[in-house]
Amino acid sequence: MDRAAEGDRDAFGALVRASATRLDAAARLILRDRELARDAVQEALIRAWRDLPTLRDRDRFDAWLHRLLVNAAIDEARRRRRRVTEVELDDFTGPSADDATTLLGERDLLDRILAGLAPQHRALIVQHYYLGVPLPEAAITLGISHGAAKQRLHRSIVALRTAFESQREGTPAGLGEGNA
Fold this sequence. Notes:
Layout: H1 2-5, H2 9-17, H3 20-31, H4 34-51, H5 61-83, H6 100-115, H7 119-130, H8 135-142, H9 146-168
């Protein structure tokens, strides 16, 4: 860690190599786009390289790196929101039995519903449920209070559940950026 903080690129590479897969997976879950996720990971690693000498608690490197990633992903989502053009396709009505096709359809539906959440809400869900970050630590990462994180998580889960149930029943449910 000390060698990396002093500018040793090989030492820095060894530090982040262990986290690269998790960083990429988290960014993909937050951004729902492979290329934007790569951009966010790259931005987070650039910030980490630049700011590593100022990191006070070296034992918290992984948490700090994840916080940089979440912030970079949210920044990418904000930039994307200003220039995105999306095409809406008709809903696909799949088979009614719980077979592999249905499970795939439900996972796709969940992905689409997650994509409808604001990036800050997706970031919290990814940190807490995918990365296993305790809610108080996720709140610190996002720069919000523990109470705000609990409220945001609750609202996100309610919005996900409502949208999922209404989509399964065939009724469209609006889940825009401000609904969660």
